[in-house]
Please model this.
Amino acid sequence: MENFKQKLHNISCFVFDVDGVLTDGSLILLQTGEQARTMNIRDGYALQLAVKKGYRIVIISGGKSEAVKTRLNGLGIEDVFLGIEDKISTLKNVISKNNLVTENILYMGDDLPDIAPMKLCGIASCPADAATEIKEISIYVSDKKGGEGCVRDVIEQTMRLHGKWGY
Amino acid sequence: MENFKQKLHNISCFVFDVDGVLTDGSLILLQTGEQARTMNIRDGYALQLAVKKGYRIVIISGGKSEAVKTRLNGLGIEDVFLGIEDKISTLKNVISKNNLVTENILYMGDDLPDIAPMKLCGIASCPADAATEIKEISIYVSDKKGGEGCVRDVIEQTMRLHGKWGY
Amino acid sequence: MENFKQKLHNISCFVFDVDGVLTDGSLILLQTGEQARTMNIRDGYALQLAVKKGYRIVIISGGKSEAVKTRLNGLGIEDVFLGIEDKISTLKNVISKNNLVTENILYMGDDLPDIAPMKLCGIASCPADAATEIKEISIYVSDKKGGEGCVRDVIEQTMRLHGKWGY
Amino acid sequence: MENFKQKLHNISCFVFDVDGVLTDGSLILLQTGEQARTMNIRDGYALQLAVKKGYRIVIISGGKSEAVKTRLNGLGIEDVFLGIEDKISTLKNVISKNNLVTENILYMGDDLPDIAPMKLCGIASCPADAATEIKEISIYVSDKKGGEGCVRDVIEQTMRLHGKWGY
Model:
């Protein structure tokens, strides 16, 4: 935990998975074949604030939903990568294209496809209800579940540390 | 708490935020770009009753949803201000236009944009799952979460005190 | 509780409120003005079974939703009264029209408009999260919340006692 | 529990009910008469992985929803039997048509119509919130509720035992 707090000083970029991190992991199945997802308004507030204060937010998800893209773009997030099977390649591309340093990146994921990209980043973190393997490699496990404020939790802690949290 | 009960005697106007107060903070993302919100039926019953018994209900929200407006108007609430970035200006306008006295106003909010308008009102209150800063400045923290009866809680307590609660 | 078990022997008719009893009290607000409600599949199974075994099920609700009517009719329930402001009149009409005896009726409600009709029936019962006044006049408070199995609870207990529960 | 672990070695086929097992038991009622169901993303991940690694997944449900079929087919599951009143006949047909051995089948159900087919299979299991009768005949009761990871739980345990779990 002390390790986490220390590493938090370096964070200027957040990478989030969608399902089970930005959402509560539920899929509402509609007759049209549409799968509606559920996000959290206080996570959204923190994401919007982080973008405004100059943090880079990157979204990498295996799922593919226009509704998710619309919501995240609306919060000011431009790097939204959906329908990604090989997350680590996408992450490496983002890093090299923007000259990012891995120590500056906090990654939050919840399931097996997140293992490889998580290991690449300065901070590996996860929601309270992440898969076993994910919890094992995370240096920070939020006390909030996916879709219930885990994203807000890591953003808020980081921005407070940097003196950037506030209205 | 004693302070809260005492101040409750003066309340004739309630100001509520929408997301995380009147809703559970969830956003259901639909393919059309629509963001569906979830409210609580027992909150609705209390709001309707308060309007009938002559209390003024004011809604001030940063979000903008026709569905929310439809629901709240249907409950008899006329002062529904949505898409508001600067909540304190809106509140001040409502106050001056209707010659309200701040001691008579109970405000319930859950996140940073509510801080300034909350401080203006006789009673600052919040749901059980409000942001840290909000809890700190609230003289009453409901044991109910947003969308799970926190609105009913403050309305019911007030109306009971005034002998106006009941079918 | 002993009183409840004893009175349960006489029950051949169940009266249920919709919002907060058959539903979890949530209203999902859609752009069209539609308010989607959420019911529970195991409640539905019990309702269907009760109808098949000859129990009378009566639904009386202040709300008015075609979706609710469709669902309940689909379970075999014919007496579905929606948009009712004066529940006790509706209940009295049902009773006289069908020559029912009040001792044979179990009523489950959750909020103020249910008080008067509840008092008329042999058993007054409610979900775990009912309003204070309702809990006070209920001889049985289910340990299940609205929309989470409270309806199943009272139907299952009754049918077990009568030796009619089972596939 | 030891019995369960031992029997798990033989499992090569999973049979799941839909409502209350693959879903959280909720039905969202829409004006069109549509009943939207809610599934879990981590269950879906496990189902997809099991199919890829050669396990047979069979779905038998009393309900009938195109949305459910679309979702399950999308995960690679072909044996999706919906609108089934007599589950045991369907299961027997699947068994004989594919020359399955009952000892190799794990069944997870939550309510009365699952009793007969459950008894036929090598392992009878259920979610944490299953009906009383189902819990009584289950040799394994998951600590996860329906729609909250009970399906993932049994698949993950089986595949770990077989050394097949992983990305």
In short: The CA atoms of residues 108 and 125 of chain A lie 5 Å apart. The first strand of chain A starts at residue 13 and ends at 16. Chain A is about 40% helix and 20% strand.
